[in-house]
Design a protein that fits this description.
- 54% of the residues lie in helices and 14% in strands.
- It contains 13 helices and 9 strands.
- Strand 2, helix 2 and strand 3 form a beta-alpha-beta unit.
- It starts with a strand and ends with a helix.
- Bound molecules: NADP nicotinamide-adenine-dinucleotide phosphate.
- The site of NADP nicotinamide-adenine-dinucleotide phosphate (NAP) has 24 residues, from helix 1 and helix 4.
C-alpha cells in the first residue's frame, strides 16, 4: 500500500516518521517545503502538488491546523480532490467541525473516492510511539482498508459511527479538558495572588482527585521550565470555537465552554497564542498581577 501524507507540522511529522519506520512507502506534501526535508532524508518521496500526491497514493492522511486548511487542501479545483481519485481513500485526522468533515466526505464520494474522519487523542509523544487513540467516522469497510496503517499509529481504534462521528467524538473528548485548563488557571492565579507557592499547589493538585493525568506532564510548561510546545493556546481557542458553535447548533448553551473560549481568545490577542496550552496559567497569573498592580 502506498501512503500519502499531507501536513507535516508537529503531529504530522511524528506520524509520518512512524509510518516510514514501519516500512510503508510514503509520498509527502507540506505547504512549507522545509518541514518535509527530514522525511525526504528518511526515504519519503516529495509530491509536486496535492493532486499528484493523491494520484500515487492508495491511502492519503491529512493532519492540518483547522477547518480552513482542510477545505483548501481538499479543494476539488486544485487540491487533493482535483484529479481522478476513483477508489482512493482519504483519512482526515485534524481536529475540525463535524459539519466540515461531512461536506468534504460528500465531495470525495461524488468523485468515487472515500473518506474517514479519524481525529486522534494524544499528543506528540504518543504519536511518535504509536500510542494515539483514533476516533473513527465512516464505513467499516473503509476502516478495514485503513487499519494496517492506523495500527502503526494507534494503541486503540474506536469506530464511533458514520462520517462526522469521529470529529464529534473528538470535540466531546477534548471539551472538558479545555474547560479544565481554564478552571485550573483561575484557581492557581487566586492561590498565587494570596501568597501560595505555584509549584507546591501543582504538586498537591496532581496528587489529588483534581489532578487529571495530563496535569503532571504539563507542570514543567506551567513553571516555565521548558519551551516545548505540544499544542498551543491558539489551537485550544480553535477547538473551543468548534465545540461551542457545534454545541449551540445542537441546542446546548455551553456557558463554561464559552467562558473558556473568551479566555483562550484573550490570551491569543495578548500574544500568548503560540505558547503551550498549559501556559494559560502563567498568562492568568500575569493578568491578575496587572489587575492588582502587584
Ligand atoms: N499538537 C497536538 O498535541 C495535537 C494532538 C491531537 C490533535 N491535534 C490536531 O492535529 C492538527 C495538527 O496539529 P499540529 O499540532 O500538528 O499543528 P501544526 O504543527 O501547527 O501543523 C499544522 C499543519 O497544517 C498545515 N497547514 C495549515 N494551514 C494550511 C493551509 N491553508 N494549507 C495547507 N497546509 C496548511 C501546516 O503547514 P505549514 O507547515 O506550511 O504551516 C502544518 O503542516 C490540529 O487540527 C490539531 O488540533 C494536535
Amino acid at each position: 500500500m502506498h501512503i500519502g501524507f499531507v501536513g507535516l507540522g508537529r503531529m504530522g511529522q511524528a506520524m509520518a516518521s512512524r509510518l516510514i519506520g514501519a516500512g510503508f512507502s510514503l509520498t509527502v506534501w507540506n505547504r512549507t517545503l522545509s518541514k518535509a526535508e527530514p522525511l525526504l532524508e528518511w526515504g519519503a518521496h516529495l509530491a509536486e502538488s496535492l493532486p499528484a500526491l493523491a494520484n500515487v497514493s492508495d491511502l492519503t492522511f491529512t493532519m492540518l491546523t483547522d477547518d480552513n486548511a482542510v477545505i483548501q487542501v481538499y479543494d476539488p479545483s486544485d487540491g487533493l480532490l482535483a484529479g481522478d481519485v476513483t477508489g482512493r481513500l482519504f483519512v482526515e485526522m485534524s481536529t475540525i467541525r463535524p459539519d466540515t468533515i461531512k461536506r468534504i466526505a460528500a465531495l470525495a464520494v461524488e468523485r468515487e473516492a472515500a473518506l474517514l474522519d479519524v481525529p486522534v487523542s494524544g499528543t506528540i509523544g504518543p504519536a511518535r510511539e504509536g500510542k494515539l487513540m483514533a476516533l473513527v467516522g465512516g464505513t467499516s469497510e473503509d476502516l478495514e482498508r485503513a487499519r494496517p496503517a492506523l495500527d502503526v499509529l494507534c494503541r486503540r481504534i474506536a469506530h464511533v459511527g458514520p462520517n462526522g462521528s469521529g470529529a464529534m467524538m473528538k470535540l466531546v473528548l477534548n471539551m472538558p479538558m479545555a474547560i479544565y485548563w481554564q478552571g485550573l488557571a483561575e484557581a492557581l492565579a487566586m492561590g498565587v495572588q494570596s501568597g501560595l507557592d505555584l509549584g507546591q499547589m501543582l504538586d498537591l493538585i496532581a496528587d489529588s482527585p483534581a489532578g487529571l493525568a495530563a496535569l503532571r506532564m504539563k507542570i514543567p510548561a506551567i513553571l516555565g521550565q521548558t519551551d516545548e510546545v505540544a499544542f498551543d493556546i491558539t489551537g485550544v481557542r480553535k477547538d473551543l470555537l468548534a465545540m461551542t458553535v457545534t454545541a449551540h447548533l445542537l441546542g446546548v448553551p455551553a456557558p463554561t465552554g464559552s467562558a473558556a473560549l473568551a479566555s483562550f481568545a484573550a490570551a491569543t490577542t495578548a500574544a500568548w497564542g503560540d505558547r503551550d496550552l498549559a501556559e494559560l496559567i502563567p498568562y492568568y497569573i500575569e493578568l491578575a498581577q496587572k489587575t492588582t498592580g502587584t
